[in-house]
Amino acid sequence: MVIVMKPGTSQEEIRKLSRQLEDQGMKVGVTNGVGCSILGLVGDTTHVDMDKLSINEHVERVMRVSEPYKRANRKFHPEDTVVTVGRAKIGGGSFGVIAGPCSVESKEQIIEVAEDVQRSGASMLRGGAFKPRTSPYSFQGMGVDGLELLLEAKKATGLPVVTEIMNPKYCELFEEKVDVVQIGARNMQNFDLLKEVGKMTKPVLLKRGLSSTYEEWIMSAEYIMSEGNENVILCERGIRTFETATRNTLDISAIPEVKRMSHLPVIVDPSHSGGYYWLVEPLALAAVAAGADGLIVEVHNDPACAKCDGQQSLTPKHFDKLMEKVRLLAQVAGKTVV
Ligand code: PEP
Ligand code: MN
Q1: Is any atom of ligand 1 closer than 6 Å to the C-beta of 237?
Q2: 100, 231, 290, 302: which one has the fewest Cβ atoms less than 10 Å from its Cβ?
Q3: Whose CA is nearest to atom 3 of ligand 1?
Q4: What is the dotted CATH code of the domain comprising 83-337?
Q5: Is residue 186 a contact partner of residue 132, using CB atoms and an 8 Å limit?
Q6: Mean pLDDT value of segment 184-204
Q7: Per CATH, is 2-63 categorized as 3.40.50.970?
């Protein structure tokens, strides 16, 4: 349920009404927007007396929200959420680019790539330390050592680091060492993991599951938000379709539609979407044009020798060219690359 307060209602009146509703067993979230405040009610609202609420002199409108997602729902929070990580910003007109290798491989590699992508205008560094591989015989990532190398790259460049968590037992370590916690496509519905990262204070980059609907994806964000962590970035990374020429199929419609359903920022991963380096640029530009709030792009200093996903990695030079086009197109789409 959503209660829109009349413009100019004092915070004292808002607190009074919130307390009344909390006494009835509801959880109340207040969003103070430009001009008016909105109260989002979560819990069993079936016994809330709509008529009684409507005659409150400070209440403009009361609406029942039929969608199962509440905190992530745009009706609860009409304005775009902006996720801020140091100097980087994603959402609400700020376009953020996260770039780096699929996996951290060595100190030299991660620092070299970090310096390159920073020069080209990336605002965050990606790099997997714990890798969700289809085969148990493939490179599984450097684990905890990889996190340390990401920190070295952060020290060298100042770029905040984004890396994937696969096991809730590492939440404390990630809280201490990482700037943005990535939930990979394969773990989008690992609800125990979602609940644990929901207790963290670090922003979460939530990738769309391989065959998940928009609602399922937003419900996973709701899991994280229901534990208190409201800084969630959604990431479209391509979905399973009947096409086999590309690794996945980038669902461009997800950008405008999910942004209509939710206030959370939506970014795009053109690397895992297409699966080949020659598809990265056109898919990235299509995402900018469709209104994405950012990109996460795989960049490797020697793609042919990469331990993971070299075929879809851009060279630093190619990434630099892509960034020039992204900046131009972002301007047309009304966004600024920060
Ligand atoms: C990744 O970003 O390295 C990754 C494994 O992505 P996804 O979870 O989207 O497959
Ligand atoms: Mn990868």
Answers
A1: yes
A2: 302
A3: 102
A4: 3.20.20.70
A5: yes
A6: 98
A7: no
Instruction: Tell me the CA distances in angstroms from 288 to 177, 255, 273, 322, one per residue in order.
Output: 30, 10, 15, 12
The residues, ordered by sequence, that sit 6+ positions from 48 with a Cβ below 8 Å of its Cβ are 1, 21, 24, 26, 41
**Average pLDDT over all residues of the chain:** 97
Question: What tokens were used for 314?
Answer: 């851009």
Residue 48 reports pLDDT greater than 90: no
Helix intervals (H) in 121-170: 144-157
Three-class SS of residue 162? strand
For residues 250 and 259, what is the distance between their CA atoms, to the nearest angstrom?
Answer: 16
DSSP secondary structure, 70-91, as one string = -TTBTTT--SPP-EEETTEEEB
Domain boundaries defined on the chain: 2-63, 83-337
Mutation pick for ligand 1 pocket among 140, 164, 183 (CB with most ligand atoms within 8 Å): 164
How confident is the model over 55-76, as pLDDT tens digits?
999 999 999 999 999 999 999 9
